[in-house]
Amino acid sequence: MTDSQQSLTDWFETPPGRYLLAWEQDGFDLAVADMFGFNALQLGLPQLQTLRANRMPHRWLALHEVPAAPDPQAALVTDAAALPFPAASLDLVVLPHTLEFSADPHHVLREVERVLVPEGRLVISGFNPTSLWGWRQGRGHAMARLGIHAFGASRLYLPDSGAFIGTGRLRDWLRLLGLEIETEHYGCYRPAVRSDKWLQRTAWMDRVGARWWPIFGAVHFVVAVKRVRGMRLLGPAWKPRRTPATAPVSVANRR
């Protein structure tokens, strides 16, 4: 397992990691339940069963490398930037925190666009840098660069190896690839605390945050669809002119 994958796996075993996983699991269950087709793929993060509520007959979990312990969900091991599927063959692709821990996230999106069928769906989740959690992560990086280690100021809250992608930049990438956003929302508004006790005490912030500061949730959740603009077949520019039927002409009686 790579260092970035190990750091993410370790973080999801912490109290804030378990809290975020529970929220995302509910979000994926709701998002994919009514998506129809034949082939669905989850790229990475086996801690989440993003396709369990989906009813497509063929569902796969793709991992970057062979796991240390056999995973009954895993069907293949592949690089997210080079998927072993033909073009326009998948109806649904799910990327749970895949882009932010990829060496080339834009290339991964291009590959996903290639394998999606027209009108196929893409579901993405990722950490929101514009949030309390993102702010604390940025402060930790800044303190570490300045060499300030007092009172744990440089201690990072989120996995160190992730390059978190802002929602504005993600929208631009999707638009360039012809992927149109259907829904977009945020979640996990509790403060960046490490103990389960304080996470439970601040549970009320999920309800208030969703109402009063929705774009500052710790995680953003996007559902996009691959739009293929169809060509309109035009008829010939000319049309045969119909000859109007001649009306019978009455002949006057000479007499």
UniProtKB/TrEMBL annotation:
Keyword set, alphabetical order: Methyltransferase, Transferase
Positions of the Methyltransferase type domain: 75-124
InterPro entries: Methyltransf_11, SAM-dependent_MTases_sf
GO molecular function: S-adenosylmethionine-dependent methyltransferase activity
Superkingdom: Bacteria
Listed GO biological process terms: methylation
Name of protein: Class I SAM-dependent methyltransferase
Organism: Hydrogenophaga crocea
The organism's taxonomic lineage, starting at the top: Bacteria, Pseudomonadati, Pseudomonadota, Betaproteobacteria, Burkholderiales
